[in-house]
Design goal:
Layout (H helix, E strand, L loop, with lengths): L11 H9 L4 E2 L5 E3 L4 E3 L3 E2 L1 H4 L9 H16 L13 H6 L7 H5 L7 E6 L2 E7 H6 L3 H15 L9 E6 L81 H33 L9 H38 L3 H19 L3 E3 L3 E3 L5 H15 L2 H52 L5 H46 L5 H44 L5 H38 L2
Parallel strand pairs: 6-7
Antiparallel strand pairs: 1-4, 2-3, 5-6, 8-9
Helix pairs in contact: 8-9, 8-10, 9-10, 10-11, 12-15, 13-14
């Protein structure tokens, strides 16, 4: 995903979709403030957790932050977006802290998910929540003006892009107007917090240091304020609502609304039953797998699976009839994908009926062949949808990018170790040369100096061990928080569950890596301590021994120079591969 165009400017549409609506950048209270004429920016925050959904953004944060500010200043200058606070509806006033609306705060409605965009080859569909239409004068015209400015910012002709504006309610459903076109529209995310002043980082999310500040003046000038590079600690994923799906036909939309509560009910009741079953099983004293009580419990669990499975398969059978009817109508691809997404959720709940307990073992629910055949049929259709193929292709690229990023980090770690070893060898050579050139001096003073160097060498390794242990501890803390969230999350939030599990698995891979690094560091510490102990024991001022030490370490430095050069060449190759996948 390349947010910066060939002309060096940010893609306005992607900035609204990803950086604002996607939650990557936001303002803390006081950072986006009103001076009575313009809104000004004195600082900005980046949420590294949200960046995990957009690979590559973190590395470009220093470039994206000022570009986003430039875009906001560009929008701020348009007087069409200025509305006095007295002319705004009460609900929008809360978002604007009871201040006048200007270009920046109108654009910032994307951050509150009151506006959402969906860009396709056919054009751009903008969804505005009903509160925008009700509380802002001439809202639809302002939305169109905003989209045209976002398109034009990166050099495109806004007149060449078809723009459709639709109204959606707080649940993301299209509000049909009497004279409005029945066009598909992106589903707006859920309702935002009450006001800008209430903006707080999500629990566990990492705040990044303020990265940019601006001053907006009547001349249109923007004075950047230098700020430190962003630093991060362990970040936790935060759920970011996005406009992703198109509106379904009204008849199916109503049907889907009736199916979802049924699925939620089954998922909730199944989880409650499993919790009660686990408590019941804990009261049984296990005497062997032939125990009649164990067999009775296993049979009761299987019977309950059949009850829930029959209910789910009934829902699916009815759903397949609706899908067949929609296919016969020849609905657009985006509508068919939304329908099949619902089918996949239903079938996933059916597969989730599998249970496993101590003494009981695995108890599988046997899905009927009729149901599995229907699923296989529509699963093949789903996999061939253009949007799904694009997502699959992007996921392959993401996997390849992540692998290359891991390899790049490993190469950089190697280079750092080699450079450190080179500097250590160089220090030994210089010290030995000083010993030869200098007079013998006082043997006691020489020993003290050598001991001090030994302590410094061992201490340097100890510091690296401490930093490595901190990395492990931070990721383990994050995993425990994610596991707690996984326990509490709704059984129907399958996408969120998968994201959490993937994140835990991703963290665990790094924990294992850091543990391996820790073991290597412990061995290195022991080796360094032994080397310096040998030097202390062999301290005699013998010139021949010092010359031999110089020769050995000089050769070591040459080998390290060659190794570093080779690894840098390998690093450049990997970075080039990563750039091709951007």
């Amino acid at each position: 995903m390349d947010l910066i165009g060939k002309n060096g400017k940010i893609d306005g549409i992607l900035a609204a979709q990803v950086l604002l609506d996607g939650g990557v950048f936001f303002f803390k209270p006081g950072e986006l403030y009103y001076d009575g004429t313009y809104h000004q920016i004195r600082g900005m925050q980046a949420n590294t957790a949200a960046m995990r959904d957009y690979p590559g953004i973190f590395d470009k944060m220093d470039a994206l932050a000022p570009e986003l500010v430039n875009l906001m200043v560009y929008i701020e200058k348009n007087v069409k977006f200025r509305v006095k606070v007295d002319d705004l509806g009460q609900e929008i006033r809360q978002f604007l802290q009871n201040e006048d609306m200007t270009g920046m705060t109108f654009l910032y409605l994307f951050k509150w998910h009151l506006l959402a965009l969906n860009r396709t080859v056919a054009g751009i569909t903008a969804a505005m929540e009903s509160r925008v239409r009700a509380c802002i004068p001439e809202a639809e015209d302002k939305v169109r003006e905003l989209i045209e400015m976002l398109v034009a910012y990166n050099g495109a002709d806004p007149k060449s892009v078809a723009i459709t504006v639709v109204e959606v309610n707080a649940q993301g459903k299209v509000v049909q107007q009497q004279q409005a076109a029945q066009a598909p529209a992106p589903v707006a995310p859920t309702a935002a917090p009450a006001a800008v002043e209430q903006e707080q980082p999500a629990t566990g999310a990492t705040q990044v240091n303020s990265i940019v500040g601006t001053t907006v003046s009547d001349s249109g000038a923007m004075d950047p304020v230098a700020a430190p590079s962003p630093t991060t600690t362990a970040a936790s994923p935060m759920q970011v609502a996005q406009a992703a799906s198109a509106a379904l036909p009204a008849d199916f939309s109503s049907y889907a609304d009736s199916v979802k509560p049924k699925l939620q009910k089954v998922a909730t009741e199944w989880e409650q039953y499993l919790a009660a079953f686990k408590n019941q099983l804990a009261t049984v004293q296990f005497t062997g797998f032939s125990d009649p009580k164990i067999k009775e419990l296993r049979d009761s669990l299987a019977d309950k699976q059949e009850d829930f499975g029959a209910e789910l398969e009934e829902i699916l059978d009815d759903l397949y009839e609706h899908i067949d009817a929609l296919e016969a109508k020849g609905v657009p691809e985006n509508e068919m994908k939304s329908v099949l997404d619902l089918e996949r959720d239903c079938y996933e709940e059916l597969k989730n009926l599998r249970a496993n307990f101590d003494y009981i073992g695995d108890v599988e629910y046997r899905i009927s062949r009729r149901c599995s055949r229907n699923h296989e049929r529509w699963d093949e259709v789903y996999k061939t949808l253009p949007s799904v193929l694009r997502v699959a292709d992007e996921e392959k690229k993401n996997v390849a990018r992540r692998q290359i990023e891991v390899e790049i980090n490993e190469i950089r770690e190697k280079i750092n170790v080699m450079v450190k070893n080179y500097n250590d060898a160089k220090a030994v050579v210089e010290y030995a040369q000083q010993q030869i050139e200098a007079s013998k001096g006082n043997a006691g003073d020489d020993r003290k100096k050598l001991m001090a160097r030994a302590d410094a060498a061992v201490g340097a390794v100890d510091e690296r061990i401490r930093e490595n242990n901190m990395r492990i501890e931070e990721m383990e803390i994050e995993n425990r928080r994610l596991e707690d969230e996984l326990k509490d999350i709704s059984g129907f939030a399958l996408g969120r569950k998968k994201t959490i599990r993937d994140t835990i698995e991703y963290n665990n891979s790094y924990i294992e890596k850091y543990r391996s690094v820790g073991q290597n560091l412990e061995r290195e510490r022991q080796q360094v301590a032994e080397e310096w102990n040998e030097k202390l024991e062999g301290l005699s001022g013998d010139t021949g021994k010092l010359q031999e030490e110089i020769a050995q370490n000089t050769e070591k430095m040459k080998q390290l120079e060659q190794s570093v050069a080779a690894e840098k060449q390998n690093l450049a190759q990997k970075e080039a591969e990563l750039a091709k996948l951007a």
